[in-house]
Design a protein that fits this description.
CATH class: Mainly Alpha
CATH superfamily: Tetratricopeptide repeat domain
Number of helices: 6
Order of helices and strands: HHHHHH
Strand content: under 5%
Mean pLDDT: 97
Largest sheet: none
Radius of gyration: 14 Å
Shape: globular
Low-confidence stretches: none
CATH topology: Serine Threonine Protein Phosphatase 5, Tetratricopeptide repeat
Helix content: over 70%
Structural class: mainly alpha
CATH architecture: Alpha Horseshoe
């Protein structure tokens, strides 16, 4: 079911239907919550939902989800894994949209540090 929810959400986003996408991304998160702690689908789903919310200017909830996605992913793969880069970059976009450029630069710095380690 996770794959179906995720695909339906992505399709809704491409069709310019963010509210519909949000519902499906929430379903994907709920499904992913049942998977193993190291399964990559939960942090991916959290990041996708946060992106959807960011695009709707729902910044507070999106920020909470980016933080959780980072925490879950770091717990699974460590603090300097390549898969964290996109979450940090997306979080930085949110911070810029929230007029918090100094915090955004910190997220970008984390992403660069990970990228340079690879």
């Amino acid at each position: 079911m996770w794959e179906r929810y995720n695909l339906m959400a992505q399709n809704a986003m491409m069709q310019g239907k963010p509210q519909e996408a949000e519902v499906q991304f929430r379903n994907a998160v709920q499904e992913a919550e049942t998977f193993d702690a190291k399964d990559p689908r939960l942090p991916m789903s959290l990041n996708n939902l946060a992106n959807c919310l960011r695009q709707q200017s729902k910044f507070a909830e999106a920020e909470t989800l980016y933080k959780r996605a980072l925490q879950v992913k770091q717990n699974a793969v460590g603090a300097f894994h390549q898969d964290l880069v996109s979450i940090y970059e997306n979080y930085a976009k949110l911070l810029r949209a929230s007029d918090r450029p100094k915090e955004a630069e910190k997220m970008d710095a984390h992403a660069r540090a990970i990228f340079m380690k690879q």
